[in-house]
Amino acid sequence: MKRNFSQWVVLAVVLAASVTPAHAQPPGDEWQVFVAPYLMGAGMSGTTAVRGAEVDIDLSASDIFSNLQFGAMGLVVARKGGWGVGSDLIWMALGTTVRNTNVDFNQGAFAFYGLRELGPAADVTFGARINTLQGTLGFKGPDIEVSQDKTWVDPIAGLTLRTAAGRPVQLRVYSEIGGFGLGSDFTWQVFPTVGIRLTRSASLELGYRWLDLDYASGEGNGAFRYDVLTQGPVLGFGFRF
Length: 241
Prior knowledge:
By secondary structure, the protein is mainly beta.
């Protein structure tokens, strides 16, 4: 499942690189800013290792709300003409119990990127994401707790597809790949949203996010690994200035 998503994202980015903005709208002279704070229900599946102690995790999407895994995020995009900048900030407190082990991870993902309009319905993005993880594994019988923190930076490149602005309902799909062994071995993200316009400057934003990280460092008792797919529904409001 994880590899299938990454293959589709790679294909989308490659296709985007070959698109020419033949029918692009004339660039505007004014800055257009979109701000969207979100709440997210998060589930996770994969493998984690803290100081060499490894645990498999499988918290499906149907378990999201029953396990009360929540996070917060905010998205800011500012554009002028065919260029723009953006930031996607995520903080999630993730936790579950796997057999006799309590697994707790605080995960931050802070992305900063530039964008270039390919046409009226597509942008290509390029930038970096700062990842930070605070991992704790608590083993019962005997009671042992191990913890480890890691921070690293991933280069990222992506593609955004969207319907025309100004419609009562706007669809948007953000996708990215990154890492390439410079930070994570590989990372990918797919984030489709539906924006329902409430007023001229405000909208209700509904979506679902998949964010996959495959990161490893150290060896033996110092080994740290986070090969986890985090996914969940998002709910927020968008504001345009």
